[in-house]
Structures are given as structure tokens and as C-alpha cells.
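Journal club side-thread
Mid-discussion, someone asked how the predicted structure for our own chain would compare to the paper's figures. Pasting it here so we can look after the session.
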Amino acid sequence: MKSFAPLLLAAFHVAGARPILEKRSSVQGFDISSYQGTVDFSQAYNSGARFVIIKATEGTSLIDSGFSSHYEGATAAHFIRGGYHFAHPDYSSGSSQANFFLQHGGGWSDDGITLPGMLDIEYNPNGATCYGLSTSSMVSWIQDFVSTYHSSTGRYPMIYSTDDWWSTCTGNSQAFSAYSPLVLARYGSSPGTIPGGWPFQTIWQNADSYTYGGDSDIFNGDEAQLVKLATG
């Protein structure tokens, strides 16, 4: 996922239920921010993509300048879509950032086309890899975000990260594997090691480019299961 700071499931988890590991088909999708420029939503949909994750916010001050147009474009093209928040645990509390996200496009509605919001927690773009937090403090920060989001929407947010960052900065915490769907970033031919006690990834970000804009994402299931992730 993209941060602007330097410039200024097999299946899925629903509520608190532990997922069941099964072999699944897959669905193409992509994620996008204003940093990545033009998106051809119509062509992407015609090519078989069915979901889009759109950057909404970062920290507690940045609202992505492309969010509204991307969200409207994705909706008009009949995508299942949702927002994501780029975390800065060194800026403010998890609850503060969750509330900022919720106020600026990160909410969820039971309309069958809105994904639960996604917390993008990964390498610090302009400082210490783990934002100066210990592993226990990082887990507490994430829990603060997750709990605030769940209290407001009734849904647990998806969590985006990499195996390396999660292992390094949370101590490979398993605290979220029972209820927050994992969006795993790994550019290659397979998702690789699954961190944090998750038995599988719900979405795999498999490349940092996609033909019609943004980064390529693969949902670990069929279209009916993708709809289920949206509906809860």
C-alpha cells in the first residue's frame, strides 16, 4: 500500500468466528490510492476483477485526495469496494486513527457491496521500521484500532501487512487471527509464509502493479464468498 507521509480467505473471518480452512477458487481485485494515478474501472471489471480497496486516510490528518472519485468510480462500475487506512502508530492512538478513518470513508454498511475497512500496518515510510514501539505496545495499538472500529461498525477490520513486518514489530502476535481477515502482501508466485496464527490469507496482494491501475490483489475464495465478506 502507498503512504504519502514522505511527501507532506481459503476463506474469511466474520465477526468473532474462527475460519474454516478449505481449498478455494480466487477472484481478482486491486487496491488504489491517489498516488497511483488513473484507474480504468470499467475495463478492470470487464477483465474479471470484482473488488477494490481504496485508500481513504492516513494518520489523523491526511484524507486521500482521490478517495471520493475512486469510490464513486468503483461503485458505478459495480465493484464490491471498501476503504483502507495507512497507520502511523507514532502519530496518535489506535482509537484516534480508527475514528478518523470512520469519519472519512472507512465505515461499513450492510448493503452487500461494502467491504469492512482495512488497517494497513507495515513499514514506516519515514522512520524506524516499528515506529519506535515495542512489540507489546504495537499489539496494544492495533487492538485499540480494531476494537474501536468493531464497536462502531459491528465488523472487525481487515489487517494488511507482510510476514516480515508482522513478525518483527508484533512478535508474530496471534491476537487477531480469530476475527480480523488477513490481507497479506508478498510479491511472487505464492503467498509464502502466513504470519500471526492466521491459517491462510483472505486476500493476497501479489504484485505492486495491476493492468488497469493500482496494486494487484487476489481474494482467496469465489465470488459468493467475496459477497459474504462484504455482508458479514
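Post-session note: Residues 135-153 form the longest helix (19 residues).
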